[in-house]
Amino acid sequence: MSSPGPRAGGPTSRRSFTPAQKLAYLAAYDAAIKNNEGDAYLRTEGLYSSQITEW
Predict the structure, then answer these.
(1) H-helix or E-strand spanning residue 26
(2) pLDDT for 15-32, tens place per residue?
(3) How far apart are the C-alpha atoms of 49 and 12, rounded to whole Å?
(4) Which residue of 10, 16, 41, 51 is 20 to 30 Å from 33, comparing CA positions?
């Protein structure tokens, strides 16, 4: 038997963020950058730097 691929259940919907959530992520990212932990923060939260730039 073959195992199902990573998209076996079909595509998932994109995450959407409210303006309040975006501001909270931006504030937390700003704090993480000051501690040289910006990249780690993005990985932990599952965010991309392009999202931060866009917001």
Answers:
(1) helix 19-34
(2) 899 999 999 999 999 999
(3) 21
(4) 16
